Amino acid sequence: MSSASSHIANTSVAGLKPVRFTVQQFDQLLASGALNEFHDQRIELFRGELMHMTPPNPPHDYVVELIGTWACDQTAHRRSELSVRVQSSMDIVGVVSVPLPDLLIVRTQSYRQRRPGPNDTLLLVEASDSSLSYDLREKMELYADAGIKEYWVIDIPHRCLVRHLAPSNGRYSSLQTFDEHTRPVYSRQSNRQRIATLFHSRHPT
Questions:
Q1: Rounded to whole angstroms, how far apart are CA atoms 34 and 171?
Q2: Looking at the DSSP assignment, which residues form a beta bridge with residue 57?
Q3: Is the CB of residue 172 less than 8 Å from the CB of residue 145?
Q4: Which residues of 19-52 are buried (b: 16+ CB within 10 A; e: fewer)?
Q5: Which of 10-19, 77-86, 150-159 has the lowest mean pLDDT?
Q6: On the CB side of 154, how many CA atoms lie within 13 Å of its CA?
C-alpha cells in the first residue's frame, strides 16, 4: 500500500458512528456507481468501513513492479497451480473486509465470479512507505485474523522486508526482518529474492 489510509465519511451528522457495510453491501455500492466520485483513488472495505488510499508514488510503483516480476518468475513453472495478482482485491468475509494488497500469489482457478480469499492465498505482499505503521499494525492484525499464512511488508524507507508467518489470534507467531543484503526464502519456493534488488536493480533475481 502506498500511503496511509483514511476513512471516507459515511455520515454527515456529527456525533453519529460511521455506517458499517457488509462485503455484499460494498459490492452493491461498487455496482451502483456510488463510489465513482473516488475514481482517482483506491477504495478498500476495512472491517466494515470504507477507506481510501492516496495515489502511489514512484518508489512504491517501482517496488511493486519488481516484486510482481519476481513473483511471476517464481511461479512460472507452476502456472497451472499458482497465479500472481498485482494490486487486485480479495475477499475477507470473516472480518468484513475487501483489501487491495499490492501482490498476491494464489491458487490458480477462475476468479471471474468471485475474489480470492484467505484459503486461496499463499503469499500476500504490501509495499509500504508512508503506510508503514498501518501495514505493520492494522493490516497485520487483519491478515492474521483472516488466517493469511504468509504476509510480507516491504519497508521502503528502511530498505528491508518484514516476513510474517504462522497467524494466530490476530498476530503472527513468527516474525523475521531481512535487510537489503540478505535473501529471504519464500516458504513455497526454493529460489530467493535479494532485498537489494528492490532498491537498486532493474530486475529482481
A1: 34
A2: none
A3: no
A4: eebebeebeebeeeeebeeeeeebbbbbebbbbe
A5: 10-19
A6: 30
